[in-house]
Amino acid sequence: MARHAPEHDVDENRLEVGKPKDWAAGLPGVAVSLRRGFEQMGAGRTVRTLRLLNQREGYDCPGCAWPEPRESDGEHRKLAEFCENGAKAVAEEATKRRVGPEFFATHSIADLADKSDYWLGQQGRLTRPMVLRDGATHYEPISWDDAFALTAEKLRGLADANEAIFYTSGRTSNEAAFLYQLLVRSFGTNNLPDCSNMCHESSGAALSASTGIGKGTVSLADIHEADLIVVIGQNPGTNHPRMLSALEQAKAKGAKVIAVNPLPEAGLLRFKNPQNVRGVVGKGSPLADEFCQIRLGGDLALFQAIGNLLLRWEDAAPGTVLDTGFIENSTYDFADYAKQVRALDWAEVDRATGLAREQIAKVAGMIAESKRTVYCWAMGLTQHKHAVPTIQEVANLALLRGMIGKPGAGLCPVRGHSNVQGDRTMGIWEKMPEPFLAALETEFGIPVPREHGLDVVDSIRAMRDGRGKVFFAVGGNFASATPDTELTERALRSCELTVHVSTKLNRSHVVHGRTALILPTLGRTERDVQAGGEQFVTVEDSMSAVHASRGRLTPASEHLLSEVAILCRLARALFGEEHPVPWREFERDYDAIRERIARVVPGCEDYNERVREPDGFVLPNPPRDSREFTGTLTGRAMFGVNELEYPTAGEGRLLLQTLRSHDQYNTTIYGLSDRYRGVEDGRRVVFVNPADLTDLGIADGELVDLVSEWTDGDRRAERFRVVGYPTARGCAAAYFPEANALVPLDSVARTSNTPASKAIVVRLEPA
Ligand SMILES: Nc1nc2c(c(=O)[nH]1)N[C@H]1C(S)=C(S)[C@@H](COP(=O)(O)OP(=O)(O)OC[C@H]3O[C@@H](n4cnc5c(=O)[nH]c(N)nc54)[C@H](O)[C@@H]3O)O[C@H]1N2
Ligand SMILES: Nc1nc2c(c(=O)[nH]1)N[C@H]1C(S)=C(S)[C@@H](COP(=O)(O)OP(=O)(O)OC[C@H]3O[C@@H](n4cnc5c(=O)[nH]c(N)nc54)[C@H](O)[C@@H]3O)O[C@H]1N2
Ligand SMILES: [Mo]
User: What is the DSSP letter of 8?
Assistant: First the structure.
């Protein structure tokens, strides 16, 4: 099963590999943001646009979900409250380049299918609704009304509403997300897969079981107040650069940082803050006090080992290590957890983690001494087969020492997309809980289906098996973001209709169903004017703060509709004008949507008033607010009791993780520079430890095919350049989405069904 690499991906001749950096941001960061801005938008627009980024009167950064400082917490926003990669995200959206009807007339589908994600994204903003008719070679313009009529007709023609699949990516605003799930449920299905299924689903599943709420329990102020921050499976220097300022601020007050990662990521080692002079010209500040270079998937074993030590130290000096009051009063199942962890097999810990026992003891000692610990994590934990138990072990450590629901302490799954958490709050989930569905039914007087819908992996299976026939996406790039590229592309191509509401051209537009539509939409940065006047939208950040976002730029084209308008007009085409949901009014004035959100979504009472507060408001969170765990099975915080497990590769094989370079936003490739890792002008690289290269008899710089081994056979991604790199032994890394072809569809996390994109068994074959 070889995947032919689009021509532009094969960058073998230009690739340059230099020395990896041990620090992040600083002057080059500022320079890169401005350069990318100028290239895409010109100087004037760059300054006008960046000035409003993450400001109260401006728009929320379309990059990551890291929160902004809140005045109500006594914190202040800087004049430039953004990072290099946020500026790149904005430049991508606010670009002056356009993809209009002439573009589609010159480029056939076959032509576009041969281009890389990078090339497709660089062409600019989509300007007109386009249709690819059955059997046609080119997209052609279509009117909005005809596009809605066509979609409605195909949807109505299905034998069963469950044959339609409605995907969401996490940039969608709360208002659009609420309307989208309402439309989908009015239509009669819960098939609402979203990017979260591939992202923090494992965190949601683990935390719901442990603390009773599938979200984190800290605010930005808690990070600033912590005396110990553990950063696990996360590369903040690239993916959440503003988090580095928070770490730096905590460190200035004496906090320690522990990093757990197979890679010595630049941003974890040293940080030069571009927002102050010392950061721009000086050496910057060291970040991680302790760097645990763990093997891929060894984290569960590490946390059990730390738990084992904490228990032993408590035995030796009772009352000094554990928070016994908290354990007795607020938790459940401590005894079973303790029994499991006391019986730990240390030889297994050695094999799983590759860490020295002295280092594990040192780190456990830091945790034992800390009075306020925050645990942060991202994809390095969530995208493993045993992701859910691994994250429960993080929660176990927090519970042992009562590090939840008090200032400066707690659990912090660091979210990806800027509104992925808000979309969930608004009902984008294939298995929303009963109270939400019942409230929706009562509010609108429509029957709401109760049968659980399909998530991402199950949607692909349904399309593959002919059970999924219409695929509709609000945002995202399903074809490139999902696992098992070849299988998924075949699944998408077997659909009767694929529809994408998008800002920019991407691969999902050329991996199309028999008929395909592209519906171009406004981005975050753009002014949204409706019949009722100028509108704003709302979003929720990684720490449950909900606030307004107002675009100020002139839209990329006069033909664009907002996501809200697209959904309202589609709903009218689908349900007619007599529907109990007032779609026309919702499109006219988004306050009308927010009034309904206030009545349906828990914690959103008086939504319209509260999102108009300067900092918005923070959603209720019982574990954080009052140390209550009302959402768990027992009403107490639950210790998770888990077997020790970890992935292994076997003789002559490596464990491969797929990750982001410094110059991309998921499937949107900004450029070909992974500056911090020393890779320039190319992306088809595989990072391998030099000692493993020696063992495998492969030379640094050689060209290899990556062959992934799975029960149903091999998958192959061709022609990757080997880069000798100081990753943990037995582990390798390659970029997402180029390496997605290697992730088997059925290799998923238990419970969360998240593709195991961080532990793929591969062998390297000379190309
Ligand atoms: N600029 C930019 N910002 C982004 C994104 C982007 O693409 N570009 N994407 C956004 C999204 S949607 C998300 S979800 C986040 C992703 O943010 P991250 O999770 O930081 O993203 P990844 O690049 O997948 O990096 C995974 C990190 O975990 C480490 N890791 C991998 N496997 C393991 C493991 O088994 N154990 C441990 N301890 N560590 C491991 C890797 O070495 C790497 O440092 O970023 C968001 N922000
Ligand atoms: N192998 C591997 N696979 C992974 C991952 C991994 O680490 N490894 N990470 C996973 C993760 S964490 C995630 S979150 C998913 C991401 O999956 P997705 O969210 O599906 O992918 P993105 O690349 O973020 O989507 C980019 C597209 O969104 C559209 N877009 C951008 N802004 C807007 C907007 O404002 N409105 C609309 N309607 N469209 C917009 C543009 O057309 C752009 O091309 O990928 C997952 N896939
Ligand atoms: Mo994500």
Answer: G
Per-residue pLDDT tens for 470-484?
999 999 999 999 999
CA–CA gap between residue 488 and residue 734 (Å, rounded): 20
From the list 286, 285, 290, 283, the residue with the least C-alpha distance to 228 is 290
C-alpha–C-alpha distance, residues 702 and 198, integer Å: 32
In angstroms, rounded to a whole number, what is the distance separating the alpha carbons of residues 197 and 427? 14
Largest CA distance in the chain: 76
**Helices 174-187 and 590-600, axial angle in degrees (round to 10):** 70
User: Are 217 and 602 spatial neighbours (Cβ–Cβ below 8 Å)?
Assistant: no
Which of the listed residues 414, 449, 468 is the one where a domain comes to its end?
414
Q: Residues 177, 181, 184, CA angle at the centre, nearest 5°?
A: 140
SS3 content of the chain, % helix, strand, coil (to 5): 40, 20, 40
- Convert the pLDDT of each residue in 640-652 to its tens digit: 999 999 999 999 9
Structure tokens at 704: 């290899």
Ligand 2 pocket, residues with Cβ under 6 angstroms: 62, 169, 171, 195, 198-199, 379, 383, 416-417, 474-478, 481, 501-504, 506, 521, 523-524, 563, 658-659, 666-668, 736, 740, 743, 757
Whether 212 is in a domain gets the answer yes
State if residue 176 touches ligand 1 by the CB under 6 angstroms criterion: no
Within-domain flag for 116: yes
Q: Residue 657 maps to which CATH number?
A: 2.40.40.20
Write down the pTM of the prediction.
0.95
Pocket test of ligand 1: the residue of 66, 88, 234 to mutate, having most ligand atoms within 8 Å of its CB, is: 234
What values do phi and psi take at 323, rounded to 5?
A: -95, 80
